[in-house]
């Protein structure tokens, strides 16, 4: 696969899966717009790693849940790097809390970033791509678009919404030469899972649920994203690729 000459924007790319995606796309030939919300240094670290690969990169702050900030983010990518070919809507958050205790503010924050932010990013990128007649949009959801996660109702609802948003957008945007696909990671060793990662018993219990008998790493997800961004996936749209070592199939064999 080669993405030489393409320009990508990856939201939430200051760490974890987003960082791995940004670096993989750069390794495959992309110039990359890195995005962060609060972790400027993390975004700068991602930018520097991309530049060491010989690709151009910019690091742009934006809250993806705000329409004006998403518009400004996409415009910075187009102005500074020369266009936008690949949009990866990765940014998301979770706020664990039992369903009887979830506050309206917690619900709104998770939905704003994890679902509304994906919609706004997809929409703004598509507006540019429609004019060009070509584009790749990739959303990052979770196996919890299907599998329940008690104590994380807003997150599960948001990720389920991302799946259906992706499918609907794929049908609407196909006539414009734009593919829209979704990647659903399982248990990945990232900062968002740090509480589990520092508990050996919790890690062992988690691995016992995974047929491939290991946690995933961010690069596992990034490889699938790179495929979906490439010409090798030109006839793929509206699909969800589960990257979970078989975990969801073990839980739900149907």
Automatic annotation (TrEMBL):
Q: What class of enzyme is it?
A: oxidoreductase
Annotated keywords: Oxidoreductase
Residue spans crossing the bilayer:
none
EC number(s) recorded for this UniProt protein: 1.1.1.47
Superkingdom to which the source organism belongs = Bacteria
Q: Would the keyword RNA-binding be found if you checked this record's keyword annotation?
A: no
Q: Which PROSITE patterns match?
A: ADH_SHORT (PS00061)
What name goes with this protein? Glucose 1-dehydrogenase A
């Amino acid at each position: 696969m080669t993405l030489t000459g393409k320009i990508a924007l990856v939201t939430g790319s200051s760490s974890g899966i987003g960082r791995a995606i940004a670096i993989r796309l750069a390794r495959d030939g992309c110039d990359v717009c890195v995005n962060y919300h609060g972790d400027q240094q993390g975004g700068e670290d991602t930018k520097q790693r991309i530049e060491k690969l010989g690709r151009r990169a910019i690091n742009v702050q934006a809250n993806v849940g705000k329409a004006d900030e998403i518009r400004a983010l996409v415009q910075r990518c187009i102005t500074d790097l020369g266009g936008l070919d690949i949009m990866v809507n990765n940014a998301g958050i979770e706020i664990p809390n039992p369903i009887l205790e979830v506050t309206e503010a917690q619900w709104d924050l998770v939905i704003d970033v994890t679902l509304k932010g994906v919609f706004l990013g997809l929409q703004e990128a598509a507006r540019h791509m429609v004019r060009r007649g070509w584009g790749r949009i990739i959303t990052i959801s979770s196996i919890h678009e299907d599998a329940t996660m008690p104590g994380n109702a807003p997150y599960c609802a948001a990720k389920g919404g991302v799946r259906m948003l992706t499918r609907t957008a794929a049908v609407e945007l196909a006539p414009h030469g734009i593919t829209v696909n979704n990647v659903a990671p399982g248990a990945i060793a990232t900062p968002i899972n740090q509480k589990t990662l520092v508990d050996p018993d919790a890690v062992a219990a988690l691995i016992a649920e995974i047929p491939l008998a290991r946690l995933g790493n961010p690069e596992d997800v990034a490889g699938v994203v790179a495929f979906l961004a490439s010409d090798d996936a030109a006839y793929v749209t509206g699909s969800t690729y589960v990257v979970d070592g078989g975990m969801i199939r073990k839980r739900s064999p149907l």
